[in-house]
Amino acid sequence: MAPIDTLSFKCALITGGGGGLGKAMATELLKQGKKVIIAGRTEKTLSETAKEIGATGYYVLDTGDIPSIASFVSKITKEHPDLDCLINNAGVQRPLEVTSSPEHKGYGFDLDSADQEININIRGPIHLAVTLLEKHFSKLENGAVIMNVSSVLGFVPFSVINPVYNGTKAFVHFFTTNLRQQLARQESKIKVVEIVPPQVESDLHRDRTNPDDNKKKSGAPALSVEEFMADVKEGWKTNQDTVAAGPGIEMTQLWDETFGTKLKAMAK
């Protein structure tokens, strides 16, 4: 049995949906007639965004608080039994420069910050995806969709000041790839999609010395949110397993041509 199409779902949960790329994806899906629930750490932001875009609802959720995820899944699936799509979008990016000066953000060996980044970017998405699969998605007659947001930095780690972030996004890429392969072997009706943003104008760099160094006004070769969404919409529409944008399209194609063919052969 073939997986369902990317946009065949009815109700999506988007983590990190209060702003940035999460809000942009939520807005687009609402335009397409989907029910959208947003989740994030700050209730005020979630409440304002939900009201602004007309979201179905919102939940306060820190994806880095791993013990809370099981109860969250129980609550949201009870209150929204039609939930059939998860978009793991929440993430943080923090510099970790072990050779920088003390006054520079990210200086030293801040392992507490690194642990939190790993929890938010890796453990949270795993727990949400696997728990929803086990407790809810696998029981849906019409299938479900899981979308995990990685990054071009998970393919080529050229942002040298972000070794933890780069590693977490490489993890998301490989986890998503293998999850898709496992479900395909079982002829599951679960569609697994990877979204691969390049540098996009957002608040992702808020922990840097210059939080606007990913903005076009600062000379960054970044996509606007609108440019990013144009490519994402096309990827969704054409039912792609890997939905990239801007320069990320060529980068993911190069990876697939170089390693994807080998992966498919070796995985057999």
TrEMBL record:
Highest taxon listed in the record's lineage: Eukaryota
Region (Disordered): 201-221
Membrane-spanning segments: none
GO cellular component: membrane
Annotated Pfam families: adh_short
Keyword Oxidoreductase: yes
GO terms assigned for molecular function: oxidoreductase activity
Ranges annotated as biased composition (Basic and acidic residues): 202-216
Keywords on record: NADP, Oxidoreductase
Gene3D superfamilies recorded: NAD(P)-binding Rossmann-like Domain (3.40.50.720)
Family: Belongs to the short-chain dehydrogenases/reductases (SDR) family.
Function: Putative oxidoreductase.
Protein name: Short-chain dehydrogenase
UniProt organism field: Kwoniella pini CBS 10737
Taxonomy of the source species: Eukaryota, Fungi, Dikarya, Basidiomycota, Agaricomycotina
